């Protein structure tokens, strides 16, 4: 198949492209750097010619609510029109577990708007919701560091390695549209403050962890929201193993 990967030069997209090419597909990385801009529509008609599947793993450059909503809605409007014109038969979108249950997070509201646009597009689709990336734990810790203390709440997460995210996205792109959700997360549920402790145990840097239920963007989110339910598929990679390997 010809599979166009929007955001195909990024952290997830580049891995998805490689996985699909390894399976013998014509996987095309589409991004501003390759002449394709979903915000303006530039290059979309050309890159989607003959495309069977579109994978959208592009991310907003801003996590601010209005900017993120504008990015995802404009991009989807242009992408949907181009997909319909090209006869694309499967749209795969990457999203986040619990995204529709955290209205206080502006970026999550933007992802909900993206999901709604996917559902309303008329193109058969699969929405892959995943846990927070392992790769985001260290930046989250840095954002809530005060002096030598990392302040984080005990919010439950079920994080996943980016490589495992790429694998489930590539697998979904090769299958039939589910016209609904597919959920994937790591093998373990951790509390965020505990994840920070695990991180510093493997890679000590002099900081300690202080549990602070009011600290950071994940403060106050009830248990179970960001971990998903019994329909979540389990990825193989454990956080501590990933830390030691990276």
UniProtKB/TrEMBL annotation:
<feature type="domain" description="NAD(P)-binding">
    <location>
        <begin position="7"/>
        <end position="173"/>
    </location>
</feature>
<dbReference type="InterPro" id="IPR016040">
    <property type="entry name" value="NAD(P)-bd_dom"/>
</dbReference>
<dbReference type="InterPro" id="IPR036291">
    <property type="entry name" value="NAD(P)-bd_dom_sf"/>
</dbReference>
<dbReference type="InterPro" id="IPR051164">
    <property type="entry name" value="NmrA-like_oxidored"/>
</dbReference>
<dbReference type="Pfam" id="PF13460">
    <property type="entry name" value="NAD_binding_10"/>
</dbReference>
<keyword id="KW-0521">NADP</keyword>
<protein>
    <submittedName>
        <fullName>NAD(P)H-binding protein</fullName>
    </submittedName>
</protein>
């Amino acid at each position: 198949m010809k599979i166009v990967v929007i955001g195909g030069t990024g952290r997830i997209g580049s891995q998805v492209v490689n996985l699909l090419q390894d399976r013998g597909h014509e996987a095309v990385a589409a991004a501003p750097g390759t002449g394709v801009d979903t915000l303006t529509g530039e290059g979309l008609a050309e890159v989607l010619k003959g495309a069977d599947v579109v994978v959208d793993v592009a991310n907003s450059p801003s996590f601010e609510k209005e900017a993120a909503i504008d990015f995802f809605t404009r991009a989807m409007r242009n992408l949907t029109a181009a997909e319909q014109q090209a006869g694309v038969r499967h749209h795969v979108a990457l999203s986040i577990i619990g995204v529709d249950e955290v209205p206080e997070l502006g970026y999550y509201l933007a992802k909900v708007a993206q999901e709604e646009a996917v559902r309303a597009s008329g193109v058969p689709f699969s929405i892959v919701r995943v846990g927070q990336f392992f790769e985001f734990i260290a930046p989250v810790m840095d954002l809530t560091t005060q002096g030598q203390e990392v302040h984080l709440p005990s919010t439950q997460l079920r994080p996943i390695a980016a490589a495992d995210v790429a694998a489930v996205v590539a697998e979904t792109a090769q299958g039939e549209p589910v016209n609904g959700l597919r959920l994937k997360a790591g093998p373990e549920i951790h509390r965020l403050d505990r994840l920070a402790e695990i991180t510093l145990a493997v890679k000590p840097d002099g900081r300690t962890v202080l549990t602070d239920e009011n600290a950071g963007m994940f403060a106050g989110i009830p248990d179970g929201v960001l971990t998903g339910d019994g329909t979540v598929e389990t990825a193989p990679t454990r956080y501590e193993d990933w830390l030691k390997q990276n």
